[in-house]
Amino acid sequence: AQKITQTQPGMFVQEKEAVTLDCTYDTSDPSYGLFWYKQPSSGEMIFLIYQGSYDQQNATEGRYSLNFQKARKSANLVISASQLGDSAMYFCAMREDSLSGANSKLTFGKGITLSVRP
Amino acid sequence: NAGVMQNPRHLVRRRGQEARLRCSPMKGHSHVYWYRQLPEEGLKFMVYLQKENIIDESGMPKERFSAEFPKEGPSILRIQQVVRGDSAAYFCASSRGYNEQFFGPGTRLTVL
Q1: Which pLDDT tens digit goes with each residue over B79-110?
Q2: A34 touches chain B (CB under 8 A)
Q3: CA distance A25 to A95
Q4: DSSP character for A10?
Q5: Omega before B8 cis (within 30°)?
Q6: Rounded to an integer, what distance in angstroms lies between the CA atom of residue B42 and that of residue B103?
Q7: Which of A45, A54, A92 to mutate to test the interface with B (most CBs of B within 10 A)?
């Protein structure tokens, strides 16, 4: 089974509207972290937001918020007031905090393309 | 405050040559990770290093690939005898450990 699933093939949103990008994950590790990264056409990976599995509240960072539903194993990214510069690929990733404490690699989904229309 | 530095940004090699990719982590970061991104794919973990130690190399191909992070200097990802299938973007990330990983701009490797 895939650890991170991003199934939306491509998303379109009107400028200034909100958009939700879906991410579901699969892990048996009780302690884990969830991340979202943005990759514009220039290619760099930009960290957006982080949610820990034990965090009681959903993470927010400016226009980004993470809709964390632990029982459903979903960690959807919500972008409010979309801007043209938000057009990019968006990747969801997970870090599983194993008992050894050394396994801090990230596992990425395949990504979602977001296009913001003027 | 400089971010993660990678060089070169673009690298072209002929089949059979060696490729050396360099990564300088952010100041204060002692954890380095290498990831590979094939076209239209997400990033795939390759190796995780701390100074002078390989912590997790579960994503590294068994042959031709090696990585190091010496006490002084950048981390190096080395690919010997490159083949066309090695063409990809290689990203380095650094962190302080149990925190978010910050990525460099990547090295785009093209094998002719």
Answers
A1: 999 999 999 999 999 988 767 889 999 999 99
A2: no
A3: 11
A4: -
A5: yes
A6: 14
A7: A45
